[in-house]
Write a structure and sequence with these properties.
With 530 residues, the chain is of the alpha/beta class. The chain has 20 helices and 20 strands.
Length: 530
């Protein structure tokens, strides 16, 4: 299969995910005279502008025992409203009535993190039945669980980042704190906002009361004073939101320069293979992404398995660290395998990261890494020391970091090149990306050996056909987990992007990270091994 074909298959699968809860869910919204979530987005966002959707694959093939959870029952992404880039977080009530599952919470928290880092106004379109109770133990109490959303609301407010909430359906139990912690609260007629619904109130205190009197929009706008804007329907509510966002101070958004690349962006499909086995020169891939004639390569003759370079993308300066997948040769004549990080490459990259922090240049990581070099020579060269140095400087970087996984992202290579655990402002992946501790073949052999020895210790000698069946089963299970959709379902990447859109997505992300002031911290690494 070609990379372009795989990309088309992913696009078709994404269209299915965007259908949410399907016909039944849409019909339910229609009966309640409410729009579905994606219709709300169409009315809210400026016409003919792009919506950068985040974590569309969240929850993919998870929660099958509960009937599945397309897009984790929510929509998050960055779009333009009245000329202002905003983070939109919307419950999709066609999916489990907008109930919050563990991955739903994780998705919202990531959207909040990106919004905070980029100083983006946040719009919440609330239509949720609350926490999915059968999984409450995975949603309720921890620092990365449901309550963290409300904590973030308070922190956003203190930081002066605008937050708007529109209740356009249910907003029940603890979830009611979210809209009330926002700067402006809108609510449509027929919606409900209460800590406990009528049935729970009757069970708890024996009081009988209808939903409108308990927590309807009219009550909250006339009696409790909780609601700032009472709206008759979804359309009026969304128009009011646009009007309120338009009051924000006008921003001087600098468009990207009208620059071109050395090679057409579509050439990426001929450079990188689906299986990741085909060697390629990273310079060819960069020629499809960066501005023509802008490459200034740093230490080009040293540590060649990592390409480090200053460049421009859409006229904006960047520092690039990318894996070289072609075989290379050191100055001493030693052969180095493409996609592997050697000690010299790690040392070079660490020095480069420090320099980019010195000059306040954003960092772009292009990952296609199978890991650090192993073996006697590698250990004697100080590979662990050099790798730790690179991990240190990436961890302490104060400049924006954007990561794109264009192939493999294995083991400590993922860490050193700014994987999710190292706070990239954005992390994206191609459909062919593989995201795991090690390659499937190596992992299958390792796991198979462990299982085989365990069977032998139990005195159960396995026949050759049983051994082969065990190995095949182990490899199949591991390969399923290396598929980028598995990682995206769990929030390890923000988006799976079509390879030919890498440049435009990087331009968009660079424009967004420029909105935030640089960290007040000075760049400091602490103790470095040398």
């Amino acid at each position: 299969m070609k990379l372009k074909q795989l990309t088309q298959e992913f696009a078709a699968e994404e269209d299915k995910i965007r259908e949410g809860g399907g016909k039944e869910g849409r019909e339910r919204q229609e009966r309640l005279d409410r729009m579905v979530a994606r219709e709300r987005l169409q009315h809210l966002l400026d016409p003919n502008t792009a919506f950068f959707e985040l974590n569309l694959w969240a929850g993919f093939q998870m929660y099958q025992e509960w009937g599945g959870l397309p897009a984790a029952g929510s929509i998050t992404g960055i779009g333009q409203i009245a000329g202002h880039p905003c983070m939109v977080i919307a419950n999709d009530a066609t999916v489990k009535a907008g109930a919050m599952f563990p991955q739903s919470v994780k998705k919202v928290l990531r959207a909040q993190r990106i919004a905070f880092d980029c100083r983006l106004p946040v719009i919440f379109l609330v239509d949720s039945s609350g926490v999915f109770l059968p999984l409450q133990d995975e949603i309720f109490p921890d620092e990365d669980d449901f309550g963290r959303i409300f904590r973030n609301n308070a922190v956003f407010s203190a930081a002066g980042i605008p937050q708007y909430a529109a209740i356009m359906g249910n907003c029940i139990a603890g979830g009611g704190y979210l809209p009330v912690l926002c700067d402006k609260l809108l609510m449509t007629e027929g919606s409900g906002l209460y800590l406990a619904g009528p049935a729970l109130v009757k069970a708890a205190i024996g009081q009988e009361i209808d939903a409108e009197e308990l927590g309807g929009a009219k009550m909250h706008s006339e009696i409790s004073g909780t609601v700032d804007f009472f709206e008759p329907n979804d359309k009026a509510c969304l128009e009011r939101l646009r009007s309120l966002v338009s009051l924000l101070p006008t921003e001087a958004i600098q468009p990207a320069n009208n620059t071109t690349t050395e090679k057409p962006v579509e050439d990426v499909y001929e450079i990188v293979s689906v299986d990741g086995h085909k060697p390629y020169d990273m310079h060819d891939l960069l020629a499809c992404i960066i501005d023509k004639g802008s490459l200034d390569e740093f230490k080009s003759q040293y540590g060649k398995t990592l390409v480090t370079a200053y460049a421009r993308i859409g006229g904006m300066p960047v520092g690039i660290i990318a894996n070289q997948r072609a075989q290379s040769q050191t100055g001493k004549g030693e052969i180095q395998i493409g996609g592997v990080i050697y000690a010299d490459a790690a040392d070079k990259a660490a020095r480069f990261v420090m320099d980019c922090n010195q000059t306040k240049v954003p960092l772009i990581f292009l990952q296609d890494v199978v890991g650090f070099m192993v073996g006697r020579e590698a250990e004697q060269s100080g590979i662990i020391r050099s790798g730790a140095k690179l991990v240190n400087v990436v961890s302490n970087s104060i400049v924006p970091k954007i990561t794109v996984v264009v192939g493999n992202s294995f083991g400590a290579g993922n860490y050193a090149l700014c994987g999710k655990a190292y706070d990239p402002n954005f992390i994206m992946a191609w459909p062919n990306a593989k995201y795991t501790v090690m390659g499937a073949d190596q992992a299958a052999d390792t796991l198979f050996t462990i299982q085989q020895k365990a069977a032998e210790r139990r005195g159960k000698a396995l026949a050759p056909d049983e051994l082969e069946k065990m190995r095949a089963s182990t490899k199949k299970r591991y390969e399923e987990q290396t598929d980028i959709r598995y990682g995206a379902a769990r929030g390890w990447v923000d988006a799976i992007i079509a390879p030919h859109t890498t440049r435009e997505n990087l331009i968009r992300c660079l424009q967004l990270v420029k909105r935030a002031p640089l960290s007040p911290r000075t760049f400091h690494t602490g103790v470095l091994q040398v």
